[in-house]
Amino acid sequence: MNRSVISLGLTSIIFVALQLDIVSPLRVGGVVIMVIWLWPVAVGLTATRLEALFSGAFTGLLFDAHAATPLGLTGAIGVILGLIASRLGQEGIGDLDSAAWWVMPSLAAGAGFSAPLFFALGGTLYGNLHFWRANLGVMMVVNAVAFFVLVRPLARLARRVSSNALSSLR
């Protein structure tokens, strides 16, 4: 098994625990900041596509197993976010070192803004219409602001635990 998969898996478990025990009870504007959706974005911008897809699916499935969400929906959103971010990361658009300081946070803010909408659309496919609630717009804005602020430290962490960092240490 690849060392980066193990380290990304362990880090994903830690993020799910942080989300469930610390972040979810702290509501900002009445909504939850979803750091488990930010993690695949940070991995996608700094690591490989496979690592971004793995972290999005694994983190989402672990979260869905412990929360009252349809199983697989959070993982599907994580995969979509990781896929988009990894494509931008491969193009060097959101590069941590060479892009302008505001590019990566802006990309993450876009992900934070769109992820709750993707979640509500996906919930509709599951037959759950209660994801379309009055505070969906607030959730989109709060997550966008939180993703803008938190993405750079998480991207540094993602780069450390990914295979890119492990191969550079050898």
Provide keyphrases for this structure.
170 residues, mainly alpha, Arp2/3 complex 21 kDa subunit ARPC3, two-stranded antiparallel ribbon, 7 helices, 74% helix, 2% strand, disordered C terminus
Question: Which band does the percent of strand residues land in?
Answer: under 5%
Low-confidence stretches: 166-170
Count of β-strands: 2
| CATH architecture assignment | Orthogonal Bundle
The ordered string of helix (H) and strand (E) elements is HEEHHHHHH
How many individual domains?
1
- The largest beta-sheet arranges its strands as 1-2
Estimate percent helicity.
Answer: over 70%
Major sheet: 2 strands, antiparallel
**CATH class category label:** Mainly Alpha
Span of the ends, CA to CA: 17 Å
Rg over C-alpha atoms, rounded to the nearest angstrom: 15 Å
pLDDT average, as an integer? 89
Overall SS class? mainly alpha
CATH domain topology: Arp2/3 complex 21 kDa subunit ARPC3
By DSSP (H or I, 4+ residues per run), the number of helices equals: 7
Q: Rough shape?
A: globular
